[in-house]
Amino acid sequence: MTLTTVTSVAVFDGTDLLDGAWDVSFDESAIIGVTPAGTNPPAGRIVDGAGATLLPGLIDAHVHFSAHHQLRALARSGVTTALDMGTWPPLFVAALRTAGAGADLRSCGAPLAGPGGPHADIPGFPADSLVTTAEEARRCVARRAAEGADYIKLIVERPGAGGPDLGTATAAVEAAHAVGLRTVAHASHTAAVKLAVRAGADVLTHVPLDTDIDHDLVRTLTSGGHVVVPTLTMMRGTANNLGDPALSFDHARNTVAALHQAGATIVAGTDANDAPGVPAKVLHGSSLHDELTLLVEAGLSPLEALQSATSVAASTFALHDRGRIRPGLRADLLLVTGNPVTDIAATRHVQSVWTDGEAVDTAKRSCTSSGGPPAEPGGRD
Ligand SMILES: [Zn+2]
């Protein structure tokens, strides 16, 4: 065990900026102590935190993987937990889970989709993920659960665009709930959001580029307790790259602003991926800092944006051992220069990162060594 103490540091504990300066000690077992600076003689390896802020390690609630080094890239940027929203085959996901270096992974495995939508055309998309009936949806959810999925991801398209129909989507959600799993629905058009909500999806990811979602839908999402992971980084990249005049990033930002004003739960996620053919390439790790900036531009306070990537993300996905700085929790920690509660851009100024109490080498290497995943891993949307 390596005891480390960060001394005289400002602390954002996942919920609030604590008053004054603090000494925070931890090892590989847990965060041990959070005490006013100078109360106790600091012990173990000392890290001077003066002028810096200590945060819980960040959580990116929408990531895809094609290589092991992406876990390390996330950790270097302070993202200590990655919620994978579509990666296969299962052997590759299992290897990522036990990689032992970089961000800690949760995964849905391969998402469920309809055979007529764009996802069915992704090279290597697993045929057993294409569902057209309630019975097929139930069988697919059972397979994902048996593979160890932490939640179920469902691709919902607007009616007529080849996604699962309402009955199929509802059966998937109910089957997931029956085995204690939450459902995350990809919904990037307003009509798809409506279908996903009617199907009972717990979490919706992406926000429409085709129109602002209307007040009734904002109310339904908020009062129904649905969580939204907007992936503004991906929506901005998509709007820029597709060049379709019918799609605008303004709609995505306006929708997040309306959801925030209505009190909806918003969780930070980027859709980081490097899959060929995706509308926008989103870098693992650094993109979460872009997402935080975009959330603030959409009306969240810096404090709310930080909560969306720490305690709120942890609560949404029942990660009760992280997302806050509190004795007994995992020592997933990020030390940054300055104060991101007053200037969100400060999260980019990473001094140190610890995953489970272990220091991450934050120096970016010139070579991007891959951990050698099995053949043809994939992940998208
Ligand atoms: Zn995605």
TrEMBL record:
Domain Amidohydrolase-related residue range list: 53-360
A GO molecular function held by the record: hydrolase activity, acting on carbon-nitrogen (but not peptide) bonds
One Pfam family it belongs to: Amidohydro_1
Region spans: Disordered: 357-381
InterPro entries: Amidohydro-rel (IPR006680), Metal-dep_hydrolase_composite (IPR011059), Metal_Hydrolase (IPR032466), Metallo-dep_Hydrolase (IPR051781)
PANTHER family: ALPHA-D-RIBOSE 1-METHYLPHOSPHONATE 5-TRIPHOSPHATE DIPHOSPHATASE
Protein's recorded name: Amidohydrolase-related domain-containing protein
Organism of derivation: Streptomyces monashensis
